[in-house]
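Question (not urgent): is this output format expected?
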Amino acid sequence: MNIDVFTLFPSWFDWFKEQRHVRNALAGGHELSTVDLRATTPLTAGQVDDTPYGGGAGMVVRVDVVEAALAARYGGDPIDLPSRRRVVALAPGGRQFDEALASELAAEPALTLLCGRYEGFDERVHEHLASDVISIGPYVLSGGELAAMVLCDAVIRKLPGALGHEDSALEESFSPALEGAPEYPHYTRPAEWRGHAVPQILLSGDHGRIREWRLEQSRKRMGGGGYLGGPG
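Got this back:
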């Protein structure tokens, strides 16, 4: 997979690229690159934003700035880019990111992530330059960089070789193996701590019963003591 992140702060992703599963993925041939939106801005002095029409506080990242960055990176008319690769604008009002969407994106050969800043993008970026607008939750961040890292983390760990062991991602929260429920509780040594013991079932060696117990615990975590269906 090839992932390009368009951002005003490319250096923020240096730390992210050093994470083990990301390094594993990159060593296996996948690519994660950052593109500085200021590098190709058509405005003077590296300007990328402007005041909003209609008034109000804050600044808005201009559509022509994003257009210029996409054109410089990929060539051709950026309007046509979503027909060739998935272009994701990260914004609070987008489709909520979840495990199903992470799996969907992980199946793509290439992703472009657009990180907004200030008051976000001119709406024409969402409407005409992006194929998707995605939110990582109903809250506001200072920019799209952290949201891009969340999306990249969830997607990259699904790529072959990223986790080092292919079975690592099979029984995870919201996975089909757990019927879409959160992951069950985990315990390790010591077997007893301050009077709190590890559930005896986990010490039984009966893998069939352990599997049933874990599924039941996952279902309880969906809320209401049972499996409600659909994403949590």
